[in-house]
């Protein structure tokens, strides 16, 4: 590979890193073919800041009230990620709470759902993916907004 191609590859990788940062993505993977036996395969990733943001509020609570032992377990049990009825996103995409603009939402807080009922849609690469209820129960919390971007594993809602 020539020095000129190397410089172009470095610039390409820097541009990918910039795209990652600007669009708040956690990972990008690209394969670039130059010739029959000459290609560049790049994977750029970073830690999800969402996980760090969730961990920060939990840490100060015990330090702020070291005498009161009872509130600390209550705060830990209120973390939606620890809830057995937590529904997470199976993919990166955009959330849609209804099937089409102007239609009522698939579910709202307080609705009873059966296993397999559509809770919302995650659009990924122009494909509408219906997210089914993993179990029957009542929707107690909706943790995302319509048209919000979500990552793989993002909390969507709680079903009890």
TrEMBL record:
Q: Where is the composition biased (Low complexity)?
A: 57-76
Pathway(s) it belongs to: Lipid metabolism; fatty acid biosynthesis
GO cellular component: a single term: acetyl-CoA carboxylase complex
Per the record, which residues fall in region Disordered? 57-89
| Keywords on record | Biotin, Fatty acid biosynthesis, Fatty acid metabolism, Lipid biosynthesis, Lipid metabolism
Among the GO molecular function terms of this UniProt record, one is:
acetyl-CoA carboxylase activity
Q: What are the BP-aspect GO terms?
A: fatty acid biosynthetic process
Q: Can you tell which superkingdom this protein's organism belongs to?
A: Bacteria
The record's listing under Pfam families reads: Biotin_lipoyl
Q: Does the keyword Hydrolase apply?
A: no
Relate the protein's function as given in its record.
This protein is a component of the acetyl coenzyme A carboxylase complex; first, biotin carboxylase catalyzes the carboxylation of the carrier protein and then the transcarboxylase transfers the carboxyl group to form malonyl-CoA.
Name of the protein in its database record: Biotin carboxyl carrier protein of acetyl-CoA carboxylase
Gene name per UniProt? accB
